[in-house]
Amino acid sequence: MTQLLAHQSAEGFGPPLADAVQDDARVIHELGRRRTPTALAALRAFQAMCTIDTQRELARMNADRLVEHGLPEPPWGSRLGRVRVDGCWWAHDQLDETAILLCAFSYDGADEHAILALIDRTVGGGLIRELTLGTEVDPLLQALHRADGGVDGFVSEQLDPAYARRLLEDAVATSDEVTEYREYEVKPVPAAYRKMRALTLARARALSEVATAPEPLPSTVEIELMKQTFLASGSAAGLPRADATSRAVDLLVTHFVEQAACHPVQLGPRRIQAVLGLPILAPDAIGGPEVARILPDVAGAWISWTAAERGLTGNAAEQLERAAAEAQERLRSAGIERENPT
What we know:
By secondary structure, the protein is an alpha+beta fold. The protein has twelve helices and five strands. Helix 2 packs parallel to helix 4, helix 9 crosses helix 11 and helix 11 packs antiparallel against helix 12.
């Protein structure tokens, strides 16, 4: 573990990731030309830690070449990064907006350590809000279990390592995009993110050969069936049977799927707040005043319907009901401001 922490590839020091990848490639190439034990040790560290497949392979080839020239392997070289997965657990809310992920590792029972990640799942594939490396697993696992059944309605349970790998890799990909493109106005990732990024991805690769495939968004046919089911439901009973209502439903669902890339039924309060604030649902972007007028009621009814479809009860259902009311008020306020500019 000491060797892993001692090794920092270029990306850990803060340059843009594209530049860091090129810097690492140049360093690997130069190390391959130096026939010294230090160069060999550094190459084995790059082999374990690089986030790019081709760079890990390049580091391995250069290291193997130095061994062929008679250089001794570092004493830790054969075990560096070859960890045993001791377990994965997570705590998540019923609305699937927040996940606390704990993955534990060891070197055959020695040098235990764990990655603890707090993932905001309302942003893309998930945004890393906290990222911690712990060298004692039990206290972290106990803290995770204490989140079970609290006021936020979290549930803690064991997790399939392949699914844990997908959660981590998706969250890193989203966090990279947010940090690399400054036009995104999202709360920043934790200060330790860049220094922990390579280690997090290395441990994610150790979890399983492949990650669980992401759940696909509904097909066009499935979306149309959802719309028809919604319009025939009790949640939509108070909406006028008019063309504007159908157009508002089309606009809202298309917005969830195509603009926000989220399942139109798997909604939560923070995801709703983020999605309904996107510019495409601003009053001047909605096709026609009749659609703009009915859209708040459609949004509220749709959100309430999703709670019933998912069988949500208790605190989770109450949260969605409040989100529906807030969505209606937000859209109505935007429409009033447009009609009565100051």
